[in-house]
């Protein structure tokens, strides 16, 4: 397993510039680093038994790296990174339509992977892969356009310019907004992770469905304020910087809550 992972990672790093990843490398590592800071002692020990001594941030982008694999082994996992849903009138409608969806998605896989990690009868290698994917897709959950709309592929078909460069709305939110801040992932996580214990508890409150609805509402606001053909620059960064940093922080704290509950 280690040999296979190593080969895939090498291929991934070579080809990584060709792909658009959710939150980009920095964003996923920020979320993982914040989560690491809020693990319970028991969760930390159990995760080390499964994952080894590397921090969560080390594995945070692996499920995107394996998109570079050409063998088709991981093809089925592509749908695990998002859940498409049209704008919903309220939470009850959102929850009902979310649960009615068929096929694998970010929503279904958080539950499936959580069950695999929790079950100590799961094979060691499968438990590790399930945990790695959980670290990643819980980060995806916090990227609003991963709870976006099917017709535009979560903003991938909405063409915009960002400081004059042609791109799309999804790419802006995946990495460009984060990377424009020019922080390393450790610097950014330290700057964001300053909430009190009571504030952390409030952010972590709720169900998986609540958290998805939270991102969905933000996605709707992004869509409304970024039509096709938008020219984005400093004003867009200013408008959405608080939202960006909220989602990175909330993603990390909610990932920690999920992992603590599992162990």
Which CATH architecture would you pick?
Orthogonal Bundle
Q: How are the strands ordered across the major sheet?
A: 2-1-3
Q: Note the overall shape.
A: globular
Rg from alpha-carbon coordinates = 18 Å
Structural category: mainly alpha
Instruction: Look at the structure and give the mean pLDDT.
Output: 91
SS field, number of helical segments: 13
Uncertain segments are: 1-20
Q: Give the number of domains.
A: 1
- CATH fold topology: P1 Nuclease
Q: N-to-C terminal Cα separation, in Å? A: 24 Å
Biggest sheet character = 3 strands, mixed
CATH class: Mainly Alpha
Order of helices and strands: HHHHHHHHEEHHHHEH
List how many beta strands DSSP finds: 3
What is the CATH homologous superfamily assignment? P1 Nuclease
> Helical content, roughly?
55-70%
Relative strand content: under 5%
Task: Describe the structure in your own words.
With 263 residues, this protein is mainly alpha-helical. It has one domain: P1 Nuclease, CATH 1.10.575.10. 62% of the residues lie in helices and 4% in strands. A 3-stranded mixed sheet has the order 2-1-3. Strand 1 and strand 2 form a beta hairpin. Helix 2 packs across helix 9, helix 2 packs across helix 10 and helix 2 crosses helix 13.
